[in-house]
Design goal:
alpha+beta; Nucleotidyltransferase, domain 5; 3 domains; 5-stranded antiparallel beta sheet
Length: 378
């Protein structure tokens, strides 16, 4: 376990590493913590171990051109880094508490090799910096660094929640498509305070979460299906769209092939297919001719075909219609602004004419109908 402390504010951060050394995850972890100190010149004091020496050298090179001054302690003089030793002990105690809490709620004995253990270490240091008062002023490290206390709501560690996944662009989602997926809550992000949710597909970060019923909040089967590691990146947008099972074929810009179908969808009819009988064929033909008359058959091409081989063209037509609707909204807003400008101009012109005719300013306190009628009579 790697622990780092900001000696000025008392901010603590800890991470579980697979092995000691200068691995990419360890370098990124330390560099991110130093960047959050918001200082150009940083002094790093560390124990004189071979693995730590290699790590801080890599961090110094990674943060260049920002200044990172290295201060190794005298060999075996651990009192020089007493703040880290004390924080290390506190994080270990909080991690043991989380292990016992998850065991009591789910019956699962989390070991260091389990994917939840690394998030327990991280969440223990994260909570200590935000809720543990310290110093003569009896304030938390978070308040000491930012000037205000941390007030975002939290969920008990390991609880199963529903997280809302935003879909970008919005046109990829139909009205009946869901944006909520189930996962295990393991903490919040440092940068944007988003909720970290682990699923069987990977880690998801979302702003909105919803708790389940009391009897469904802790399920051992869901936790056993987790395979995400803390060093993995969060799921990308194409991966999230594949998990949500949208009702339209997903093909984002830059992709070379369609997203693979989810398990259990083989043989299911596509939601884009239109199934009509002979009695409705006339209505369908009239609708198609109407669209062709508006856009033109030459520009429309094969976009109206609902066959699986032309799903990409159908998607282009949907995007075109969406852009036309946005343009229409912009034209309505522009027309409203023009009318408002004309109204202001007429009012100013009326005021000038009335002043020229010698009408007193008390007239302008009347209603619009009286004012207009009087100006017309003059």
């Amino acid at each position: 376990m790697l622990t780092i402390v900001d000696a000025e504010t008392g901010f603590v951060s800890a991470a579980q590493l697979v092995k000691k050394g200068d691995g990419p995850y360890a370098v990124h972890f330390v560099s991110t913590f130093l960047d959050q100190m918001r200082a150009e010149n940083v002094r790093v004091r560390y124990a004189n171990e071979v693995s730590l020496v290699c790590l801080v050298e890599k961090v110094k090179a990674f943060r260049h051109p920002r200044v990172t001054t290295l201060e190794p302690i005298v060999r075996a003089e651990h009192a020089a880094v007493g703040a880290v030793e004390r924080a290390h002990r506190s994080v270990q105690g909080a991690t043991r508490s989380l292990v016992l809490d998850v065991r009591a709620r789910t019956g699962l004995n989390v070991q260091p090799v389990h994917c939840l253990f690394a998030y327990m270490v991280r969440h223990s240091s994260w909570a200590s910096s935000r809720f543990q008062p310290r110093g003569p002023r009896d304030i938390t490290a978070f308040e000491n660094r930012n000037g205000y206390s941390y007030k975002s709501p939290l969920v008990p560690f390991g609880e199963i929640v529903m997280v809302r996944v935003p879909i970008d662009p919005p046109g990829l989602r139909k009205k009946l498509d869901t944006q909520w997926i189930k996962g295990v809550w393991v903490g919040r992000m440092d940068e944007n305070d988003g909720n970290i949710i682990l699923t069987e597909h990977g880690a998801v970060v979302g702003k909105s979460v919803r708790r389940l019923a009391v009897e469904l909040r802790y399920q051992k089967s869901v936790i056993d299906g987790l395979k995400c590691k803390i060093s993995h990146q969060v799921l990308s947008q194409p991966a999230l769209l594949g998990i949500l099972q949208l009702g339209i074929p997903v093909r984002l810009e830059g992709e070379t092939e369609m997203m693979p179908p989810m398990e259990g969808d083989v043989g299911q009819p596509s939601t884009d297919e239109i199934v009509v009988d002979d009695a409705q064929a006339g209505v369908e033909e009239v609708d198609t001719m109407h669209v062709e008359d508006v856009f033109g058959t030459e520009d429309l091409g094969d976009a109206m075909a609902m066959d699986e081989t032309t799903s990409a063209s159908s998607r282009k037509l949907q995007i075109l219609l969406w852009n036309l609707l946005r343009v229409g909204s912009g034209l309505r807003a522009f027309t409203w602004l023009v009318l408002q400008g004309c109204r202001r101009h007429l009012r100013a012109r009326t005021r000038a004419l009335c002043n020229h005719a010698g009408i007193t300013s008390s007239i302008f306190s009347m209603s619009k109908q009286s004012r207009t009628g009087m100006c017309r009579s003059r």
